[in-house]
Amino acid sequence: MKKLFIVTFAFIATLSFTSCKKCTTCGFDYSFQGVNFTDMKEEVCGKKKELDNYKAECDATASLYGVKCICTDK
After folding, report:
1. If 0-12 CB within 10 Å is exposed, 13-18 middle and 19+ buried, where does residue 58 land?
2. Angle at Cα 22 formed by Cα 63 and Cα 74, nearest 5°?
3. pLDDT tens for residues 15-69?
4. For residue 25, what are the β-bridge partners?
5. Could you give the CA distance from residue 28 to residue 62 in angstroms, rounded to a whole number?
6. Whole-Å CA distances, 26 to 11, 33, 73
7. Distance between CA atoms of 3 and 74, rounded to whole angstroms?
């Protein structure tokens, strides 16, 4: 019983300290002479904070050019 408790505790502790890496791809959605375009950038994988920074950078760049930033999570 004691071994089961230790193994279970170790498993839960391991899961709580690991962070999942996720991926997202952002791009710009715009129209030119009545034709809609979507220009996708490279896929970025990392922790939530890294992905949030990537999305914020895309939003900031899009606002400079008057286009819309779109992101697709994987």
Report:
1. buried
2. 75
3. 445 557 899 999 999 888 888 888 888 899 999 999 999 999 999 999 999 999 9
4. 43, 72
5. 7
6. 35, 23, 9
7. 38
Going across the sheet that includes 35-46, the strands are 35-46, 22-32, 68-73
Structure tokens at 2: 């004691």
Place of tokens 């791809």: 25
Quick check: pTM over 0.70?
A: no
Task: Decide if 49 contacts 7 (C-beta within 8 A).
Answer: no
Which amino acid, one-letter code, is at 1? Answer: M
